[in-house]
Specification:
Pept_his_AS; 7 helices; binds 2-acetamido-2-deoxy-beta-D-glucopyranose; protease; 18% strand; Papain family cysteine protease; alpha+beta; Cathepsin B, Chain A; three-stranded mixed sheet
Length: 346
């Protein structure tokens, strides 16, 4: 009896110790990553680059896995979908252009910043966001297309929260179509995003920290049970008439946005990008993290540096109110090499 009690006590002690060590190891990793980002901020700010770094509260509770879970573009793996490449006429383009200013009074989606949470769904965000804008710009209806619907139902797009391909998303919009939907918790449309924003503040008790990676939810062919949208799923599908890529050419990209509205683009993310605050981003320091898709809305010149204006899906608390500028004309981080879009049909 005495022997057994001893073994049980030892077992309990060991389990407690193991749990404690695992927890401390996780905390240590988090603190170390936060420290690394702090060093990167110092390095960028003292580098006399065209941009300034700072603490984006989004990453305070994050570890490297949580950060990497945000990179959802499959680089180096082919989707098998080849879109026609278009090179639009590029005469008379202005020095500066912003689709939000051009069409934003009629089309409120242009001003929206979404939040992908810790799911590698950026490929679906860049597509749903830019296609919502284009739907309004071309057809005059200020709607929101559902990231959730694209993320969960497009099998040919890749692996859901584990990453996907922007060109496949555009193809899906033309061949299958998307229902309406907006941010987490918004039941005004058919299918809302089901992942809550992850913690952007150290003290947040409401949201979980940005760690790990969430599993892709199932594809459901009906509107959310709590949706107040009066149009049923089958009648709520919006489709495109043509999906296409844009030539890897600064002027062709500008001409496309100027004529038809925002597009989806992808870039390679390095660690310094996480700390972006203001100015024109160009890679300064840090390791490569993965591929990321975003929405390009315009261009301009800041202190002599040409830039693209881009809306991210990392919440409005990240970067410059959720947006960033990146060096234009140099294919910085591959930003000009995989631009895709589509035109809406209905
Ligand atoms: C980096 O530069 C920005 C803008 O000048 C400033 O707000 C921030 O405090 C700086 N941070 C560090 C760690 O140098
Ligand atoms: C900082 O950069 C600007 C423009 O890029 C340049 O004119 C200036 O000489 C640089 N200053 C230092 C100290 O390197
Ligand atoms: C951004 O995060 C905050 C919490 O920090 C949240 O209240 C807000 O809804 C998020 N924005 C979006 C677009 O999800
Ligand atoms: C849902 O989003 C739409 C814009 O898409 C907005 O007009 C509406 O007020 C939002 N509703 C709620 C309940 O947040
Ligand atoms: C609304 O319904 C969806 C599924 O239909 C669910 O995921 C979500 O949590 C619900 N939201 C609220 C606020 O009840």
């Amino acid at each position: 009896m005495k022997h057994q009690a001893l073994i049980i006590t030892a077992g309990i002690l060991l389990a407690t110790l193991t749990g404690f060590v695992a927890f401390e190891a996780f905390r240590y990793k988090q603190e170390k990553y936060h420290d690394k980002l702090k060093q990167i901020i110092q390095k960028v700010n003292s580098s006399n680059s065209t941009w300034k770094a700072g603490e984006n509260t989004k990453w305070i509770n994050s570890d490297i896995a949580g950060v990497k879970a945000h990179m959802g573009v499959k680089l180096g793996q082919e989707s098998g979908i080849k879109l026609e490449t278009v090179s639009a006429q590029a005469n008379g383009l202005p020095e500066e252009f912003d689709a939000r200013v051009q069409w934003g009074d009629k089309c409120s989606s242009l001003w929206e910043v979404r939040d992908q949470s810790t799911c590698g769904s950026c490929w679906a965000f860049g597509a749903a966001e830019s296609l919502s804008d284009r739907h309004c710009i071309h057809l005059g209806q200020d709607i929101r297309l559902s990231t959730q619907n694209l993320l969960t139902c497009c099998a040919a797009c890749g692996d859901g929260c584990d990453g996907g391909w922007p060109e496949a998303a555009m193809d899906y919009y033309v061949n299958t179509g998307l229902v309406t939907g907006d941010l987490y918790g918004n039941n005004s449309w058919c299918q809302a995003y089901t992942f809550a924003p992850c913690a952007h503040h150290v003290t947040s008790d409401i949201y979980p920290p940005c760690t790990g990676e969430l599993p892709t939810p199932p594809c459901i062919n009906s509107c959310d049970s709590n949706s107040t949208h009066t149009i049923p799923y089958s009648k709520d599908i919006h489709r495109g008439s043509k999906a296409y890529g844009i030539a890897k050419d600064e002027k062709a990209i500008m001409a496309e946005i100027y004529k038809n509205g925002p597009i989806e683009v992808a870039l390679t993310v390095y660690e310094d990008f996480l700390t972006y605050k203001t100015g024109v981003y160009q890679h300064v320091t840090g390791d490569e993290l993965g591929g990321h898709a975003v929405k390009m809305v315009g261009w301009g010149v800041e202190n002599g540096t040409p830039y693209w204006t881009i809306v991210n899906s990392w919440n409005e608390s990240w970067g410059d109110k959720g947006t960033f500028k990146i060096l234009r004309g140099k294919n910085e981080c591959g930003i000009e090499s995989s631009c895709v879009t589509a035109l809406p049909a209905y």
